[in-house]
Amino acid sequence: MRNPRLPGALAAGAVLALAVTSCSSHPSASPGESGRQTTRSAPKVPSLAPAGTPREVVVELGTPWSLVFVHGTPLLSERDTGHILELGRAGTPRVVGTIAAVVHEGEAGVLGLAVDRQNRLYVYSTGPRGNRIERYELTGAAGSLALGPHRTLLDGLPSADHHDGGRIAFGPDGMLYAGVGDAGNTGNAQNLKSLSGKILRMTPDGAVPADNPFPGSLVYSYGHRNVQGMAWGRDGTMYATEFGQDTWDELNVIEPGGNYGWPTVEGVAHGHGTFVDPVQQWRPEDASPSDLLAVDRTLFIANLRGEVLRTVPMADLGASTDYYKGTYGRIRALAAGPDGKLWFVTNNTDGRGRPGQHDDRVLSVKLTPAGGR
């Protein structure tokens, strides 16, 4: 089984203000040869860690799902209302616009957001024909942003009340990537004629790039159950997190054309086929990784069932450290703020969490070298 690393253009690293406060942590787990979780040693190079108590940016949100920044202004999607919200400095959200003709059922609705180099907003949502990706012009300035004309780039992606994928992100190559779930039809993950159970790669206009691994196809990698986290290291390596079913959630290094095994295998394949093995795996009750963010040489993972913010150093992909276990409940989304802080979004109002007094919330926290080094 392969654990590849991708060549590629260098990613633009976020510039973060580093404090010198140390954080307590404990080792997490990774797959061993037996498939059991094994403790790995701490990385030999500094990685980043959250420092101190996070600050509440905004509270009392309903089913927030994705967070991006446009000209330094945070925009947030709400799955069930269909709203795109602008978060003001005073902590008061305002509606930028509402995505039309959205099917709100279970995990479906308005999901991932992405922003291109021209500051156009891309939205992954569930429509009458299935999941779709649309691009919106943004009008106005901070404090008065609005959704302008839009164009549908891709429509008719398989959808269901579960396993809709939904995360979209631009890679360092300027291409748009989309995690598409299997929509409950597990066999389609191995079917290259289907776009479900895949990571897709497209131009900003929704066309198939000439250098995609399967000619004429948007499919970049396959054999996925439900990818909701994608990120790139400075060297162009692509990473993705994936929801497992009953056994293992995964952190993968993504290679073009790679087959990640679902539904034949879940987690490490142990010699079964030519599938790409995860570099780390967790029990679903400890993880359910919904978003992934790369900052400098550290991967940050948002977890729903595990109710934890997890870090993984790129220098040692089998190691991990957990923060805020159970403190904020389910964590759905992550973003690197222009203020040099890590922003994260809770998701306790999605029907599966236990909403607290101020849920759901967006919080921000400073980052520091792990161990205060």
Polypeptide structure, described:
The chain is mainly β. The protein has one domain: TolB, C-terminal domain (Neuraminidase, 6 Propeller), CATH 2.120.10.30. Helix content is 0%, strand content 41%. The protein is built from no helices and 26 strands. The protein has strands at 29-31, 37-39, 48-58, 64-70, 73-78, 83-87, 93-98, 110-115, 121-127, 130-139, 146-157, 168-170, 176-180, 198-202, 219-222, 227-232, 238-242, 249-254, 280-282, 289-295, 298-303, 309-313, 321-323, 331-336, 342-346, 362-369. The strands form 7 sheets. The chain has a 4-stranded antiparallel sheet with strand order 3-26-25-24, with no helix packed on it. A 4-stranded antiparallel sheet has the order 4-5-6-7, with no helix packed on it. It has a 4-stranded antiparallel sheet with strand order 8-9-10-11, with no helix packed on it. The two termini are 36 Å apart. The relative contact order is 0.20. The model is unreliable at 1-43 (pLDDT under 50).
